Amino acid sequence: MKRGGFGIGLPAAALVSFGLGCGPAATGEGAREPQPGSSSVLQADGTATPGPEGDETADVSTPLPCPTAGLPDGFGPIAWPAESADERWAIHQTKVAKVRTSQARPVEVCGVMGQVDWLMRLTCPDGSHPFSDPVTAHDSRAGNVGPGGRCGTIIDLYIVPCPDREYEVFMDLYHCAPGESF
């Protein structure tokens, strides 16, 4: 599967057809199962069972409720109010071994740069950083896995390389707090 390539500059219809549009997704095409050693196991019904014991997060098999009743025209980021923006899933987690994500419960950030910034803050179990620069972090995108998360948006899968193993991190880039730019 080709890594990178977000389709920047394409019209909205083209982005949706490639699974890169904003808002609720229409199909689940392009989904794939996590590889062995993943932090979660994707089930046939789209849910995931959590990884090994000892993680700091809740069950990742059930999506959280969508914080908005709907999106205008079905497109655009989900606007979080300032008082609850810190409740986005795993937004403040920095230890990759503690991040338990799935297609149903991905890390929630704002935009491609939000994904890259979040990945750049990660540390491996040995304390090292998996990415030396933002381009390498961006290029760790394995592709999208189809709709998921709180609001049925397209979820991206990133492969995070650490000395102990590679970690799979599912991310939803459609969750923006006030002042964040999509």
Walk me through this protein's architecture.
The chain is an alpha/beta fold. The N terminus is likely disordered.
Characteristic terms for this protein:
182 residues, two-stranded antiparallel ribbon, alpha/beta, disordered N terminus, 4-stranded mixed beta sheet, 20% strand
Largest sheet: 4 strands, mixed
Backbone shape: globular
Mean pLDDT: 72
Helix fraction?
10-25%
The value of Rg in angstroms is 15 Å
Strand content: 15-25%
Strand order of the largest sheet: 4-7-6-5
The secondary structure category is: alpha/beta
Distance between the termini: 26 Å
By DSSP (H or I, 4+ residues per run), the number of helices equals 3
* Extended strand count: 8
How many discrete domains?
1
Question: Could you state the order of secondary-structure elements as H and E?
Answer: HEEEEHHEEEE
Catalogue the unreliable spans. 1-57
Topology:
Blueprint: H1 12-17, E1 40-42, E2 48-50, E3 78-79, E4 107-108, H2 111-121, H3 134-139, E5 141-148, E6 153-161, E7 166-172, E8 175-176
Parallel strand pairs: 3-8, 4-7
Antiparallel strand pairs: 1-2, 5-6, 6-7
Question: Concise description?
Answer:
The chain is α/β, with parallel strands linked by helices. Helices cover 13% and strands 20% of the residues.
